[in-house]
Amino acid sequence: MRGPAGRCPNCSAPIQFRWSSAVQTVCESCRSVVVRHDVDLEAIGEVSDLPPDSSPVQLGTEGRFDDRPFTVIGRIVYEHADGGWSEWHLAFGDGSSGWLSDAQAEYAVSALVRPPRPLPPANTLTVGYAYSWQDRELQVTTLTRARYTGVEGELPFEYWGKTEVLFADLRGYDTTFATIDYSEETPLLFVGRFVDYDDLSLRHVRTYEGW
Amino acid sequence: MVAAGSPAARGFNCSNCGAPVELRALQHARAVACTSCGSILDPRDPNLRVLQKARSKESITPDIPLGTRGTWHGQPWEVIGFQRRSIEVDGIRYSWDEYVLFNPYRGFRYLSRYEGHWNDIRTVRELPEPIGSGKRPTIRYQGETYAHFQSATAHTDFVLGEFPWRVRLGDEVKVSDYNAPPYLLSSETTDDETTWSLGRYTDAQRIWQAFSVPGSPRTPSGVFANQPNPYKERASRSYRTLGLLLALFLVLVVGRLVTAAREQLLAARYTYQPKDQNAAFVTEPFAVRAPGTVEITLSADLTNAWIDFDLALINTDSGVAWNVERELSYYSGTDSDGAWSEGSRERRVLLPRIPAGEYYLRVEPEGEATSQPVSYVIQVRRDVPSLLPYGVALLLLVAPSIAATARSSSFEKRRMQESDYGD
């Protein structure tokens, strides 16, 4: 799963993409956000240190979701008035990608999907808003205004300098989980399901002193 | 990649009183209440700003001290927070305790305690599906149906340690409980959101063992919303046993009815003459070949008359007698409602446990002096099945099941008295 290599436009340190579809990574040497255009790499800014967090997941963590092995290759950290969460970017063995969200050790795995019809505009959403996905009744359970506070590793899109955006979390009568992300002009829909930590058979996780 | 373990606990000093405060839930904590002064601090704020100053000097010592670690569901969990909450119903305040358990990989679990009843709680991510409204609404979660038990406003009265949400004294949330023992599905609703959690009724002894709590837990009082009904299982067990016993019983009864000899020992017709001063007589002797029941049937052709019999079954050898007195009467006529009749022209007497031997009957009939002569028949048979002992046995068989059902429903009644649906 080795992608093309290059050098950081800012500090010339070697840059390696582990996932061939990665669009963005963070230089491990100078912490520049490096975006890939075909073969060229462009440094578009520098990330500040990631805020301290407690997720047991880290870059390089491996696991399985429904018997599909994955490797954690990147993440976006979000923060809101009452806390924050991490979206870990997963590269599956078959080349597809997904997200493992960790909100206070509550985990969900999801992937970007194409909604069958346009998503509701942000200003029409309320808690309780009903949305059906593949015959499943989902409803908006939380609306969160959050801003990203850091990125690391490889991402499937450019994620840099976003302002505060709205996220709508949806749940259903089973473990189905969905998020509508209003960070783009056209909102993005991620659908997946909640998982237990022990279901993911994670390896190379963070260790905690005394645990 | 982090090689060395990240520090699990981080300490700082309370911004209000300066006492050391330990942080155990890493960055997950959203509020920490100083164990010394009770002020609630923001652990995510670099200056540890005070979210809420301590309100009262009241201090509660939790049964399980903060920092206690135990093995729960096969994993290590640490007690990191404690709160006492209460609801008010009809002017009476009911309080319970909640413990926050933390594992850095698996997040949070909770334990709750009310009047010695403990619940093992985790948050649920699926939405329970409303399936029935009406008097007592029902919801479904993971295929199980839960019935509404109680709704109230819970008030936070006391906090210690860390919480994954911004706890405050005086917090008020609407709580609703739905039960399906041993489970309790509860919702907590604030202005912003509703969260659901699933509790499982848990023997306090298990918690005491898992978390090495000194001493022994107090005995629960009353019946809790999701406490399993011990009598329900006993009752259904007793019904299973009863089913088997009834089958056996039926075989015995049928067997007895089929195999009974019903051997006729005497059948003779006599006539009672009212003018006879002394109508007493004895019958021919007859042999009772095996010990058992002896049935005597009296039937008389009565029309608006009565006849009374003093009978004695007498053993020829020993002279031992079994005395019976029976009266037959039969009246009929017609009135404005039509034809009527009362009484009976025939009666049976069943004598239990008559020893084998030769017997005769001494018969002393007595009727109305003015009546017509009465013709009657006396029949004697042996080994005629008596159903009375079987009836008594049946009652004894059924009694434990009835008692168990009564106890079970009394338990349910006591449970429901604590609900919104009590008397």
Task: Summarize it.
The complex is a heterodimer of chains A (211) and B (423). By secondary structure, chain A is mainly beta. Chain A has no helices and 15 strands.
Overview of this structure, please?
- The complex is a heterodimer of chains A (211) and B (423).
- An eight-stranded antiparallel β-barrel of chain A has the order 7-8-9-10-15-14-13-12.
- Helix content of chain A is 0%, strand content 51%.
- Chain A has two domains: 5-46, no CATH class; 62-200, no CATH class.
- Chain A is built from no helices and 15 strands.
- By secondary structure, chain B is an alpha+beta fold.
- Chain B folds into three domains: 10-228, no CATH class; 233-257 and 389-417, no CATH class; 261-382, Jelly Rolls (Sandwich).
- Chain B has three helices and 26 strands.
- Chain B has helices at 204-210, 230-259, 388-417; strands at residues 10-13, 20-23, 31-33, 40-41, 50-52, 69-72, 75-89, 92-103, 107-114, 117-124, 129-132, 138-141, 144-163, 172-180, 183-189, 194-202, 263-272, 281-282, 286-288, 292-300, 305-315, 321-335, 338-344, 346-354, 357-367, 374-382.
- The interface between A and B is medium-sized, with 35 and 34 residues.
Properties at a glance:
heterodimer, A: 211 residues, mainly beta, 2 domains, B: 423 residues, alpha+beta, Jelly Rolls, 3 domains, 8-stranded antiparallel beta barrel, 6-stranded antiparallel sheet, 3 helices, 26 strands, 16% helix
